[in-house]
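Task card 7
Instruction: Convert sequence to structure tokens.
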Amino acid sequence: MDRKTITALKKIIGAEYLHTAKEELLCYSYDGTGQEFIPEAVALPASTAEISAIMKLASATPFPVVPRGAGTGMTGGALPIAGGLVLGLSRMNRILEMDVANQVAVVEPGVITGDLRSKAAEHNLYYPPDPASFKFCTIGGNVGECAGGPSAVKYGVTRDYVLGLEVVLPDGRIINTGVRTAKGVVGYDLTRLFVGSEGTLGVVTKIILRLTAKPEAKETLLVLLDSIDRAVALVSEILAHHLPCTLEYMDRTAIELVADQFPEPIPATTAALLLIELDGDQKSVPLASKRLRDFLQNAEQVLAVHTAHNSKDAEQLWAARRRVSPAAFNLRPHKVSEDVVVPRNRIPELVTTAEQLATASKIPIFTFGHAGDGNIHVNIMLDRDNPTEATAAEHAKQTLFAKVMELGGTLSGEHGVGITKANYLPMELSAETLAVMQSIKTLFDPRNILNPGKIFPATKQNEENN
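Output:
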């Protein structure tokens, strides 16, 4: 980016909101993958009009633009791999409207997910999507990746709550998609096209979200088992007769990483656990909880069933679950975090594969995640400076993905594709399907300036465009 472009950007947003010093650029050079790419500049716009002007400039110049939320992504979606401009959306952090009567919220992309959940709760409303990073990730980032979370087993994922969007296209045009009503089928569903597009088609500047009534009551159960196979097999049995709002699974290694975070000591014979939550009204939850506890007490290989005594105990259990991922770095300095999904009845085969890969590769590989919807996080730990471990980790990842496809699954349930999964897409998508997707990208972004190098497998043409 030349001096003329930098001067033009300063005129659009103000010099204080355009960063070019190296120490400032470093703050926007990384995400949850641990990889680092330094941009040429960082812009912090405060309005849709400013973003539109930036995109018009980028299209005319041209230079790459990478939209960025909180940088919590796990696949490199917000990394400026082609340099250019990082478009930080942290200043666009207002909850614009809480339409309580119609259970609708209108927000800017920089709103923290947890803040929206808290604001909705003040009005006895509920925003269900709850990624593990909800206390600091943003709604815009959630939309870009179609984030999920533990509650997806009952409530679904981000796309199930996005009614409409305001989007700035790569050439600076501003469009509105969707509706703010319960129904709407006028024209193509562009809203769903943008949700999960990882900032490659447009910059989302306003989001209309559906809310629900806040559950009156919740109960949280911790189930300890002496067998991993039995734990994951039990998931399907539970869901055949019960409707939890969350059903999480952790293997022995995951438990050991956060064992000191649980309200009560975990027995040494515990091989796996299930963390289950039920919600609903004041009358139904106790009855549902009793039915589930009675079922679990009679289930084979269950060591114990603990019920959280109060909200503090429940929060402590969930805090332990959320700390698994960061605690993994106690095993190795680097992590390959995969969020594969398989049909629920195939989870045992997936977990067995992960265990076998750990033994064969001689590096730590452990599993945890959203067993209720088949979304298991497989964490491959390594030291990237050790060539043997780096090679073993790559082989383990390829073998894992091949098994997921064999089981009828998908390579990503909520982390997206970014750069870490891009070259594996042909394992899941046909050449014809990829060609259609790439033609959509070209239609929206013919100059390939918006988040280039993401989602699609690397090709000579893509490299030249980037």
